[in-house]
Design a protein that fits this description.
By secondary structure, the chain is an alpha/beta fold. It contains 7 helices and 14 strands. The strands form 3 sheets. It has a 9-stranded mixed sheet with strand order 1-14-13-12-2-5-6-7-8, sandwiched between helices. Helix 2 links the parallel strand 5 and strand 6. Helix 1 packs parallel to helix 7. The N terminus is likely disordered.
């Protein structure tokens, strides 16, 4: 872990989110959030999270999702139509792909006039070069680590590979560590989310993706504003983000990873998953005087 630890962020129990002084929320610029098991349960956006996202959108408070899920999976939730999530953008594949609602794009537009733009952190030649190496490492993992399977969303991935350990498959900690070690030995960055082991070639990360999308949408340098953004997450692959933000928040199901966490968020909610995210949204809206 190379990230700088901020105030209150250490390998110790996070403080209850309910104890966070509400005046600290009045100058918040927006929320950055993980998706799986932070907004969703079993891959489905929880009703409490959807209601919270809609309330934040109405209040003009941006929520930007940064996820390890693939481009193809994320794209479905921002495409124009009745199922669109109330988000202006999703950064997918751990910082490699940005999907952005825009009024400048060609193609189908929703009732608000929005279309969808897709941008990449790596150029096309780099992605093509890495694609062959990704296939090679994936084949090696499947051959050398018994019980491993590719994540079911793999068809939508363009810059990484994912091994399922907790979504539709169940791998023990020792097997997960073998997968991580093999990926890293191949020169990949490897992280473990609540459901997948993700591996990729390149320097991008959730942090670089968050910086990219804040600059892209608002023309602002996130590294200068970490005190004004909330980050919400649920797993070990959120640790760099927890370390970056004084207002980092874990939803309650983060406690499942207590044995593996080196960096805790500053705060933790009472509720799990979408209910925990809704706690954060309600507090932020109340601090702004929004009913």
């Amino acid at each position: 872990m190379t990230a700088r630890l901020d105030d209150g962020q250490s390998a110790a129990a996070a403080r209850p989110f309910a104890a966070l002084p509400r005046e600290r929320l009045r100058e918040v610029a927006g929320i950055l959030t993980d998706i799986d098991d932070t907004l969703t349960r079993d891959g489905v956006l929880e009703p409490a999270a959807r209601a919270a996202l809609e309330a934040l959108e109405r209040a003009g408070i941006p929520v930007l999702a940064v996820t390890g899920r693939p481009m193809g999976w994320s794209e479905a939730f921002l495409r124009p139509g009745p199922g669109r999530w109330p988000l202006p953008a999703i950064v997918a594949e751990n910082g490699a792909v940005a999907l952005i609602r825009t009024r400048d794009g060609a193609g189908d537009h929703d009732r608000d006039g929005d279309a969808l733009a897709i941008e990449y952190a790596q150029d096309a030649a780099t992605r093509a070069r890495h694609a062959r190496r990704l296939r090679e490492v994936a084949a090696r993992v499947l051959a050398e680590v018994p019980g491993t399977t590719l994540a079911r969303d793999s068809a939508g991935r363009v810059t990484d590979i994912a091994i399922d350990h907790g979504e539709f498959a169940s791998l023990d900690a020792a097997t997960v560590e073998r997968v991580v070690a093999l990926m890293r030995a191949a020169g990949m960055t490897a992280t473990v989310s609540s459901i997948h082991v993700n591996g990729w070639f390149g320097e991008h990360s959730k942090w670089s993706g968050a910086r990219w999308i804040v600059e892209r949408l608002f023309g602002r340098a996130l590294e200068r504003e970490t005190a004004r953004w909330i980050y919400v997450g649920d797993s070990t692959n959120d640790q760099e983000m927890f370390a970056r933000f004084a207002l980092s928040v874990g939803v309650a199901n983060l406690r499942r990873f207590a044995a593996e966490l080196e960096v805790w968020p500053a705060w933790i909610t009472d509720g799990e998953r979408g209910a925990g995210f809704a706690e954060v949204a309600a507090a932020l809206l109340a601090a702004r005087g929004v009913a």
